[in-house]
Amino acid sequence: xxxxxxxxxxxxxxxxxxxxxxxxxxxxxxxxxxxxxxxxxxxxxxxxxxxxxxxxxxxxxxxxxxxxxxxxxxxxxxxxxxxxxxxxx
Amino acid sequence: xxxxxxxxxxxxxxxxxxxxxxxxxxxxxxxxxxxxxxxxxxxxxxxxxxxxxxxxxxxxxxxxxxxxxxxxxxxxxxxxxxxxxxxxxxxxxxxxxxxxxxxxxxxxxxxxxxxxxxxxxxxxxxxxxxxxxxxxxxxxxxxxxxxxxxxxxxxxxxxxxxxxxxxxxxxxxxxxxxxxxxxxxxxxxxxxxxxxxxxxxxxxxxxxxxxxxxxxxxxxxxxxxxxxxxxxxxxxxxxxxxxxxxxxxxxxxxxxxxxxxxxxxxxxxxxxxxxxxxxxxxxxxxxxxxxxxxxxxxxxxxxxxxxxxxxxxxxxxxxxxxxxxxxxxxxxxxxxxxxxxxxxxxxxxxxxxxxxxxxxxxxxxxxxxxxxxxxxxxxxxxxxxxxxxxxxxxxxxxxxxxxxxxxxxxxxxxxxxx
Lengths: 89, 418
Prior knowledge:
A: mainly beta, four-stranded antiparallel beta sheet, two-stranded antiparallel ribbon, B: alpha/beta, eight-stranded mixed beta sheet
């Protein structure tokens, strides 16, 4: 089982969280002219790489906040967690 | 090649089984092939077989990082079905059912195809209505479908929970009598043996390191066992699709996720159908050895681990026990995981790409095993003729761009939304 350190609540078990996918995907800016390809990349296309992966989780059975987690997709090692509004450096 | 038959069995028994031919060779890779298939799983082996058999292209190599049949073709729950509502999925899968019925004869290899039938349970009136609609769509496409009421289901699977006071009572079910199971390893080995006999080189322990692409054309592949030239290359690598796509600077509508399965200790014959739980995601059948073979949801987050996590297993088996309470008495014998190429709409991709000579076969989600023959057959056609067959026209890569999604159940990657 994964243990995820919620930046708001501390270390909690995976059971309290739900997954939200790749955290590096940015929604195209509102009102800006964008191509179909840009939408495609936002909605569907994902790198989904083996290794370090920034992803969104929601602490659903806890503080209900969305957080960012950097996890290795092959070993499940968790390196870092951030609040949703903190930028990935 | 030695033909497998009762006579060859008797003959070899007389010499203590010491004179059987090797089922396939272990060749050194040549410098150049007409076609290179990457991935020695069910789909890759079937593709090579149909390239040789249907299109007379035998200067073909299959390159496999590990050993053939060691990926998802050896890790699935062996279910074969064509109970789809949408035409593209239904016609493709039913074409595959015909290939399954003939497979043991075609390959001279007993794949133990067992058309025992599949029942999808319904747990509400609304679900019965939606199954009636799906069953009617199936019948319009020539696929057998029977809508069962509660009593009819009880007669077939009396061990399911038919008590009155349960959270998800069984209202009925949709049955496809011609669906079933097969011996998964035999499928890989049968295709490998025939492909090898027709001249295909099966090259194991050979990892793809990179690709040789120039001016929008594929020229070859760089591997751990040297460079191999080829004008046509087909990708059949399931959960490793994203890793190879990155080497080609492609980003695909695919995420790699982990799916677990498990078997119980062997018990006497109790269940002669494949049964799925309709109020969640759980499926079960009984193997010829007597083990209950079970599976369900993805672990739910991107993973290349090839091993599962316990919360998902607990969730899946809770559904199983809700459906068939006797399962709680059984001991678990084995659990394992495989990495799935989850497409965004839950349907596969078999198509050409923007790189000339590079063909893509991926996105099989939960349904890769049953698609093995039809996938191999249509992918071989797509590679040999350099155009898609009408059977896989719906499985295009650009459907995500044009909006022609094949959203059969919405069981794509974004399971957290459902």
